[in-house]
């Protein structure tokens, strides 16, 4: 694959509009550059803990009778609705596949993921039940249409191909459609029961816009977040769980997949994507960590008042300032490959000849003829943003004049290639989000906070039986 010229665009701002970024279509592994925040020490609890004046709990309780929740069969009945072991297996298969398959995830981690999947399915069931209880019905045809879009956008094929793929990894179309239905139900429920009661005044928006103008030239960040809530009683357990998630991410696990399954923020539905934000919009603890981070870096777990966060810097840019990386480039990629088993010495000689021929090319008009002479292939792309190139290539390509090429790069296995710049359209200075866009962003942030409380209430009132 010509990976250099086939890159996914950065995702946009998270809104209440439904965005289906499913576990099987996740972005690639995180970059290996990791910035881990320092652990914040947790005070040792007292002998007993008083919760809101009602509960007085011993630190080291003695249990009478046997109960090991870690060995409970992972099935449940939620307000009369059954979640089966098959439901859990099929949803778990999506996560495992998104993280490189079962061979890359230890058995202990898979068991932890399984327990999390059960919790997610319980939440999903509660959300669908609550939506139905207030008269919100999700039509099966809508679900099927979303399923069709997933098949087309991510596989370029029909639904039959996607169904076959899901079966091959141990999942099913029914499991994925259930997830789609749950996300639709929750978003519509929030629009009906939460969003109408969120008020953002014009003066608040104007004040934010003034602050953005005053911050012109400062940096803003495209950030992903995994938030795990914690209380004084379970803080150490949540921290241990967060540490394990970070460990898996360092090994190449998909941030989006872990965010979808573990994050307790409402942005979990879009893989934890917070969109483009300035650091002043983040809690101070997160802003302090992000300040020193670059694109592709991870930090966490970071202690907050209500739990722990893991943040991933997807990208950075300057506020209301043209960024050269937003330039639209016209590129030609010239590449050669080596037959399997080619000796390093022979490959080096062929690569040297390739470099010599490329150096003699004067402009993109001569590329095709020169490539034919040496048996090279040419791929053109007239609409690629510099930002979408691999980070290691961005600066090199942006320094090229039209008609110049990068030095050859590659390997014996992948072949050797160069990129020639055929044209460049520089970006215009951004005026920032419009009044309506900024108002929507502020509303979304407040809806996210209310949504967490709403879900906690549903859990508290639920009748759940475990088998």
Automatic annotation (TrEMBL):
Gene3D superfamilies: 3.10.50.40, Porin chaperone SurA, peptide-binding domain
Signal listed as a keyword: yes
Domain of life: Bacteria
GO molecular function, one term: peptidyl-prolyl cis-trans isomerase activity
SUPFAM superfamilies hit by this protein: FKBP-like, Triger factor/SurA peptide-binding domain-like
Keyword annotations of the record: Chaperone, Isomerase, Periplasm, Rotamase, Signal
InterPro entries documented for this protein: OMP_Chaperone_SurA (IPR050280), PPIase_dom_sf (IPR046357), PPIase_PpiC (IPR000297), SurA_N (IPR015391), Trigger_fact/SurA_dom_sf (IPR027304)
Start and end residues of each PpiC domain: 218-315
Annotated signal sequence range: 1-37
Record's protein name: Parvulin-like PPIase
């Amino acid at each position: 694959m010509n990976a250099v010229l086939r890159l996914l665009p950065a995702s946009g701002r998270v809104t209440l509009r439904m965005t289906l970024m499913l576990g099987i279509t996740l972005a690639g592994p995180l970059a290996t550059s990791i910035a881990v925040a320092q652990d914040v020490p947790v005070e040792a609890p007292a002998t007993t803990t008083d919760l809101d004046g009602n509960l007085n709990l011993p630190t080291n309780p003695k249990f009478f009778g046997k109960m090991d929740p870690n060995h409970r069969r992972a099935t449940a009945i939620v307000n009369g609705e059954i979640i089966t072991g098959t439901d859990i297996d099929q949803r778990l298969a999506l996560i495992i596949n998104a993280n490189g398959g079962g061979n890359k995830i230890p058995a202990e981690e898979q068991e932890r993921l399984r327990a999390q999947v059960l919790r997610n399915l319980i939440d999903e069931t509660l959300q669908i039940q609550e939506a139905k209880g207030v008269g919100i019905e999700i039509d099966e045809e809508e679900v099927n249409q979303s399923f069709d879009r997933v098949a087309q956008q991510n596989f370029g094929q029909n639904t039959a191909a996607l169904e076959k793929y899901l079966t091959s990894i141990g999942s099913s179309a029914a499991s994925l459609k259930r997830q789609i239905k749950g996300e639709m139900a929750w978003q519509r429920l929030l629009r009906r029961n939460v969003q109408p009661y969120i008020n953002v005044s014009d003066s608040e928006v104007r004040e934010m816009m003034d602050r953005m103008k005053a911050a012109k030239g400062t940096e803003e960040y495209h950030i992903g977040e995994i938030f795990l809530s914690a209380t004084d009683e379970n803080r150490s357990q949540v921290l241990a769980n967060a540490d394990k998630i970070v460990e898996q991410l360092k090994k190449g696990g998909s941030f989006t997949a872990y965010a979808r399954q573990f994050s307790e923020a409402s942005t979990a539905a879009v893989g934890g994507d917070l969109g483009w934000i300035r650091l002043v919009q983040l809690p101070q603890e997160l802003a302090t960590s992000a300040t020193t981070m670059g694109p592709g870096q991870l930090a966490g777990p970071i202690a907050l008042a209500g739990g722990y966060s893991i943040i991933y810097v997807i990208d950075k840019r300057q506020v209301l300032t043209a960024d050269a990386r937003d330039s639209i480039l016209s590129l030609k990629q010239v590449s050669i490959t080596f037959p399997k088993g080619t000796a390093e010495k022979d490959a080096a000689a062929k690569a040297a000849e390739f470099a010599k021929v490329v150096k003699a090319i004067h402009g993109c008009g001569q590329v095709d003829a020169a490539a034919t002479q040496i048996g090279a292939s040419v791929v053109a792309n007239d609409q690629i943003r510099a930002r979408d190139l691999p980070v290691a290539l961005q600066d090199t390509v942006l320094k090229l004049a039209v008609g110049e090429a990068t030095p050859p790069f590659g390997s014996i296995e992948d072949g050797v290639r160069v990129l020639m710049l055929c044209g460049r359209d520089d970006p215009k200075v951004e005026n920032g989000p419009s009044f309506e866009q900024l108002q929507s962003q502020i509303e979304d942030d407040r809806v996210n906070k209310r949504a967490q409380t709403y879900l906690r209430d549903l859990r508290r009132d639920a009748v759940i039986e475990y088998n």
